[in-house]
Amino acid sequence: MYRSKQNTTDSISSPQQIFELYLFVNPIGYKCYRTEQEVLKFMSSLDGPKVHFRFITFHNFNTVTQYMKRLNLPEKDLTLRNQIYSSIYDASLAYKAALMQGKKRGRNFLLHLQKSLADGKTIYSNELLAEVAAKANLDVDMFFEDKESPFVKSSYEADQHIAQEMNIKTNPSLVIFDNLNYQYGLLLEDNITAEVLHEVIKDCSVACEQKSATMKKTNITTIGKNYLRITH
């Protein structure tokens, strides 16, 4: 499971509030790179409830279209579209392989890779992966070996299943769970900044204390049974 079930055992003392953040990104997207930096900025300036976070690669037809639009690439070029899709898939496997050598190294690998591809001129290749892996202080040989492993591919497929369960449609998207209000997740799309995250976490904390589902500073609409979409 991608999140813990609520502990249904009654406790005399109030449980600690813990937030879980899941950021869904395009592993070769520069906009996602900037959003990841905002999440890391938020984490470094956090002074309050406990927060866990995770970057998850996700892609679909819209991911490729968004990427091509940003780089002003011909969207009707099916050969190029398929090439980009394959690169995103391969980069997702590469990120999963990098994570096997540590979460921090894996995140650094992802950030270095996205930054390297930001100009739209650098070609995605095994040579680039080797260079980025070295920058992230990975064992390069082990990295390539893990990238081809069945475990990495099944882990990637599990992430895509998580994205489907959370109704993720675009990159970047961020889902927030609160262990004290486990029935709902909050889904943020597009405008994801450190400032917005501080505001949302604060509002979630206040709402929990007041036992209210209303966020005073945020416009929220329901998605299905279990998610709320936040727009600004």
UniProtKB/TrEMBL annotation:
- One Pfam family hit: Thioredoxin_5
Alphabetical list of InterPro entries matching this protein: Thioredoxin-like_sf (IPR036249)
**Gene3D superfamilies for the chain:** Glutaredoxin (3.40.30.10)
Q: Which domain of life is it from?
A: Bacteria
Q: What's this protein's name?
A: Thioredoxin-like protein
